[in-house]
Amino acid sequence: MANFRYTAKGMDGKLRRGAMEASGEAALQQQLKEEGLFLIDAKEASALKKHRKLSSKQLSEFCRELSTLLSSGVSIVRGLEIIADEEGLSPVTRALYLDLLSELKKGISLSEAMEQKNCFPELMLGMIRSGEGSGNIDTVMNRLSLHYERENRLKQQVQSAMTYPVVLLVMCVAVVILIVTFILPQFEELFSEMESLPIVTEMLMGASDFLVNQWYVALLAVSVLAVLLRIIVKIPKVRYGMDSVKVHIPVVGKLNKVIYTARFARTLSSLYSSGMPIASALQTAGDTVGNVYVQAQFEQVIAMVRSGIPLSQALREVDGFLRKLSSSILVGEESGRLDSMLDSIALTMEEEAEAATKRLVTMLEPVLICIMALLVGFIIVAVMLPIYESYNAIEGAA
C-alpha cells in the first residue's frame, strides 16, 4: 500500500485535497469515486521532495516580497523567479523556491505546489487558497507577512528573555558537578579517618565517588531518561494531561491563557479577513494554539457555530481562553464589524502576550537562584557537619 496525496473534485464542483492509502492510482481513483469524488491529480507521498520547514522570519520575508511584486503587477511565476534569484539565500531555501517555480510552470496553483513541499504551515496554505479563490492573493500575502513578522518578533523576545535563565541553569549544573567531582574527593581522606559520618555526608560522598569512577554510567542513565521522557510526553493522554495542567496551574496558568488567546485571535483574524469561511478558519486557528487540551475543545465549538450559535457564545465555553476574547467578538457581531474587531483584539492580546511571556521568564530567575542556593547549601552542610561534630567530640574529650 502506498500513501497518495490527491486533488479531487466533488459533485458540488469544489476541489478537495487530502491523503489516502491505496495499492495504486487506479485503486485510489475507485476509492474516491465511491466517496463521490473525481480524481484530478495524485502523487505518491514518498515521491514528493521534502524540504526543511521555513522559520517565521523566512516566511515573513517571502510573503512580503511576493506581496510587493504581485501588487506591482508582476505574475506569480515571475515573482518567484525574482525571489529565487536574490543574493543571500541559502542553497536549501533557493532549492525550495526553484521547486515551487517548477511546479507553477506545470500549471499547478501556488497553494497546491506549496502543500506538496510539506514545509509550509497549514495557516499559510489555507489563506493562500482563500486568496486564490477571491483573487486578492497580494492582500493575503501582505497579511501573512505581518502575521509571521509578529510571530517572529515574539519568538525573538522569548529567546532574548530566556538567555539569562539558561545561562544561570548551566552555571548551576556546572558548579554542582565541579564541587562533587573535584572538590569533594579532597575530603575523602579526612572523612575516612572518622568513625561515623552523617547520612547526608555519606549520600554526598557516595554520589561523588559514583560520578568520578562511573561517570559513563551516569551519562548513559541521563541519556536514557531523556529519551524516555520524550517518548512519554508524546503519548496522547500524557500530552493532554500536561496541557490541561498548563492552563489550570496557579499564576502560570493565567499567563498561558493570555498567550493562547493572543495566538488564536491573531490567526483567526488573519484567516477571516482573507475571506475563509468561519468554520474552516476556526479549525485552522484551533490547530495553531499549541495546546492539545484547548485544541480538543474546538470540535464542539465548530459544531455549535455550524448549528447557528454565535461565535462569541461558542468561544466562551473554551477552557483555556480569556473571557475578553468572547466579549470583544460579541461587540463585533452586534456592530457587524467582526473582521475589524478581530484585528483589534488580536493586537491587544498580542501586547498582553508579550508582557505575559516576559513575566513567565522573569519568574524563572528567582526559582533557579533558589534551586542553586539549596543545592550548594546542601553540599556545604554535608561537608561541614562531620567536621563540626569531630570538633565537638575533641572539645568534649578535652
Description:
The chain has a three-stranded antiparallel beta sheet, with helices on one face. It has three domains: 2-47; 56-150, Up-down Bundle (Receptor-associated Protein); 172-398, Receptor-associated Protein. It is mostly helical and 398 residues long. It has 18 helices and three strands. The chain has helices at residues 25-34, 56-71, 76-84, 91-105, 110-117, 122-134, 137-183, 188-192, 199-213, 215-233, 236-248, 252-273, 278-287, 292-295, 298-306, 311-316, 323-335, 338-397; strands at residues 2-10, 15-22, 37-44.
How are the elements arranged and paired?
Elements lengths: L1 E9 L4 E8 L2 H10 L2 E8 L11 H16 L4 H9 L6 H15 L4 H8 L4 H13 L2 H47 L4 H5 L6 H15 L1 H19 L2 H13 L3 H22 L4 H10 L4 H4 L2 H9 L4 H6 L6 H13 L2 H60 L1
Antiparallel strand pairs: 1-2, 1-3
Helical content band: over 70%
Question: Cα distance, first to last residue?
Answer: 88 Å
Provide the domain count.
3
CATH class of the largest domain: Mainly Alpha
List keywords for this structure.
398 residues, three-stranded antiparallel β-sheet, 3 domains, Receptor-associated Protein, mainly alpha, 3 strands, 74% helix, elongated, 18 helices
